[in-house]
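Feature request, filed as a ticket because there's no other form

It would be nice if the structure record came with a short human-readable summary line next to the tokens. Right now we just get the raw output. Example of a typical job, pasted below so the devs can see what we mean:
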Amino acid sequence: MADAALFYDCETGKKHPVAFEGDNLKLQKAYLEVSENAGEKILVTLFGNYELRDKIEGTGKEEFLVVTKFINIWPNIDCNGNLGTASLLNTYWATQAKWKIIWIFSRSWKRHSLFNSTRQ
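Raw output as currently delivered:
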């Protein structure tokens, strides 16, 4: 099926088809709102589990992602935590006191994974 959604697990590097149930509809809608190109990989945060099911094409079984709760979608962020080109160094924030960001510690995004809506 050419239009089945795929989930790329950042931790394992494996890709899995996404089951058409649970919170999949919210995930699909969020993806369509932010994707610029068909099949574009976009980082998502969600709760779900893998279930062994019949393959979409061919015979045998494969692991499907069942999305139990869609949390958020993060355009322009990849599995390595690359956050695009915006820099916050030397940025000032208006609060009761002025703060200047001097250094930002990196944070691992490996628990998040990439999602695209086109099976390749």
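Something like this underneath would help us a lot:
Confidence is low (pLDDT under 50) at residues 97-112.
The helical segments are 24-34.
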